[in-house]
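Ticket #4471: structure export looks truncated?
Reporter: QA, pipeline team
Priority: medium

Steps to reproduce: submit the single chain below to the structure queue and open the exported record.
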Amino acid sequence: MKIGAIVEARMTSSRLPGKIMLPIIGKPALELLIERLRQCKKIDKIIIATTTNHCDEVIVDLAKRCDVGYYRGSELDVLERVYLSAIENSIEVVVEVTSDCPLVDPYIVSEAIEIFESQRYDYVSNIIKRTFPRGLDVQIFKTSVLEDVHNTTKDLVDREHAALHIYEHPEKYKLWNFMTDTGYELESQRLTLDTPEDYFVIRAIFEGLYEKTNGAFSYKEIFEFLKINPDIAALNHQIEQKNPRSYDYTAKARKYLGID
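Actual output as written to the record:
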């Protein structure tokens, strides 16, 4: 099956507009995300799923410069944008990554793909029960499952989050959640790019690890870096994550899988 990493990207972030183009070690954050996804040999193609907004021309320009695919669609209907990105590029298995994850770990992505390939799951991720920090999220599902969701739900919150409907319905779809190795739990740490404080943390990690590893550092090396640099780790601890619903939207999936 053709596996595609689809990266949702737009410039109109509410908390930190233009965040994906912020410079980190001399490169836009989105370019570093692409670099790290390229280290995952199981991915056949990378597609940037952006919008038709004029301000997102800069994202298209970066996709062209980095020689990756792109698709332009609805800003608000992210579900449709991801689905049509997959259809246009003949992707059969979607590795969904959001553009606020420049530290996405190719080792984690590879592990998730291997789990997905070895079992008949509809959805594999590391977000139902979190042991990895926000910012290392990966979600994998078949395009055929996404098509079913696309044709099923009209819920506006579902449409804003491509895979939300899948893991909110564990009675319908076969789910699996994978966890980090014991001793490397970082679930309380934010590694997602959503605020200026997040930016300072992510920039410091790249500055500390990129050159010595040629950009191929893993989440375990991030863990060790933050352990010896607690002042950096603490920079964004006060930031609260936005929730697409007013309740814990992974609770039902956790209960269904028996991992609460």
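Status: closed, not a bug. The export was complete when the record was re-opened. Leaving a note from the reviewer for reference: The chain has one domain: 3-187.
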